[in-house]
Amino acid sequence: MKFHKEGYTSLALVVLFIFIINAVADYYDAPEAIKWIIYIVSAFLFLTIVQFFRSPIKRVIPDDHVVLCPADGKVVVIEETEETEYFNDKRVQVSIFMSPINVHVNRNPVSGIVSFFKYHPGKFLVAWHPKSSTDNERTTIVVKKDNGVEVLFRQIAGALARRIVWYVKENDKVKQGDEFGFIKFGSRVDLFLPVGTDVHVKIGQKVIGGKTVIAKL
């Protein structure tokens, strides 16, 4: 387990805040009960940041025949839908919701070449809102596998997640299981797969990024 690089700024701000409120409490000789409340709040804030930005070390063995889960969380959508940004045809959508207690590292579901990338500024609807996939701040990434099959996946900001980070661009060669981004404080990742794809998860299932097999292609 390690601390993710995206959390250093947040951790520094929390540590600074903890230092200030504790220094103020000591300077003004606050009552013992108030000091204990401050200590408890300080510990809670520190542990919250540390657990949110934790980044498990995972050994992923690439498998060109499967689509691995891009994030830790819970499957909230499995449906056939019209994908209107890139494919402009019907696709099987699988969506994973990440709560604030989940690991928020995002991992490549397949290996291949990034054939399309676009960042969209937008709203911050709750991640499970039906229009969050098209109206919220988001990125759209398409990876073309060696066999020509393309898989589209989106990072979607939620009501709390107002910072999407990505590490890929068009024409990059990416490896299944490697990090492609990070979303802060609750969010969602959508996958769009070819119609007829053999989906291996179900609604409500808890999934692990880089480990759970979402589908076989």
Describe the structure.
The protein has 217 residues and is of the alpha+beta class. It has two domains: 2-55; 66-216, Distorted Sandwich (Glucose Permease (Domain IIA)), CATH 2.70.70.10. The protein has three helices and 16 strands. Strands 11-7-8-9-13-5-4-15 form an eight-stranded antiparallel beta sheet. The longest helix is centred in the first third of the chain and has 21 residues, at 32-52. The protein is elongated and about 70 Å long. It starts with a strand and ends with a strand. The mean pLDDT is 90.
Descriptive labels:
alpha+beta, 8-stranded antiparallel beta sheet, 2 domains, 217 residues
Note the main sheet. 8 strands, antiparallel
Strand content: 35-45%
Question: How far apart are the termini?
Answer: 31 Å
User: What is the topology, as strand order, of the major beta sheet?
Assistant: 11-7-8-9-13-5-4-15
The figure for the number of domains is: 2
Compressed to H and E, one letter per element, the order equals EHHEEEEEEHEEEEEEEEE
**Cα-atom Rg, whole angstroms?**
20 Å
Q: Based on the structure given, which CATH architecture of the largest domain is correct?
A: Distorted Sandwich
The number of helices is 3
Structural class: alpha+beta
Any idea what the CATH superfamily of the largest domain is called? Glucose Permease (Domain IIA)
| The CATH top-level class label of the largest domain | Mainly Beta
Number of strands: 16
Low-confidence stretches: none
Net shape: elongated
Helix content: 10-25%
CATH topology of the largest domain: Glucose Permease (Domain IIA)
Mean pLDDT: 90
